[in-house]
């Protein structure tokens, strides 16, 4: 089953249907489902797909030319440069729309820095009757830098919890949440968990056997990406399951803040680490925290790394049952705030939030009078408005005491209109919202799933 994450396929189709020559950028980290999205988009369309290798420009062009000859005919044999091929493609698209997909576009740019400018110029000067749709596939690490300057660009992200669970309709909530806590909704990871699987059994097989896919994957990717792999391992081990300050990472690794910051930026470009700041501050904030953003790496460094010796000698199954299974519920609980943030993003897209939630995340900062750091696990901010949220993983129904604890933070935001959102695994006492006023909203896990399913079904 194909799920249109963020309605990207729909958006690409709408742009294609405008029937004009244009370029669109698609940004993605590895494993996010780009290939499947391209396959779905390419159905019943004339498509020329080219994956550029990391070679000199002349060799990339030669391979591209040979592909055009094989796919489109001998008329491309006399082309001497990319502009010649583009003009022929543009001419062909007058009769029938053509999709040109340039995958790993960054290799074209690395080989010739002027290539993006040249391509943009060719598109602008194309025949008004041409219908050439150019799709440029780029690494997600360039999204923030390049997308603001582009007419059309999209970022391919992991499945949210609510998108992921649609692929596992028979699985219980707890199993779905455990699966999400491990995979982070990354399609490349989810493919190892069939719809009818037992998540715990798959974890034992994939992580706690010497030939397990994920057991070997982390070490292989670490060696592939980094020459200073031992330092990178130390940084990831320092972060573990909790968010960490830069100084805490430095204390653990004995790195200077400058060196640690540089290495963390490298890890972030690979989508392994995220740098987060309070929702009320810009990305340059010095109060940043770091966390391992890749769920497979986070689980490996938390639950696998301490037991490498046992796993290598075939004792991984015993380790899993005795050491890991008792920890899984606590491990799962940690992802519940992320699920609640996923829900808020869907609510924002559905237009059901009380104000435009431009930034959804968390907040922390120094209390002005109590001289201590306050932490709010869920928060959203927009001009003159702030939402403060709390989530509870409990079987007990919650009463208004849960709201009172959250409202104690009100004095931290004297200039903003304040809204309160409470999320619970179970439910809330009858009349909770009526008693609390229209600035308070409460959601059980079951209610979130129902509302998310209704919204996602309406967008298909």
From TrEMBL:
Keyword line: ATP-binding, Nucleotide-binding
Transmembrane segments: none
KW Nucleotide-binding (keyword) present: yes
All copies of domain DUF234, residue ranges: 300-395
InterPro entries on file: DUF234, P-loop_NTPase
One Pfam family, short name: DUF234
GO molecular function: ATP binding
Nucleotide-binding in keyword set: yes
Listed name of the protein: ATP-binding protein
Organism expressing this protein natively: Blautia hansenii (Ruminococcus hansenii)
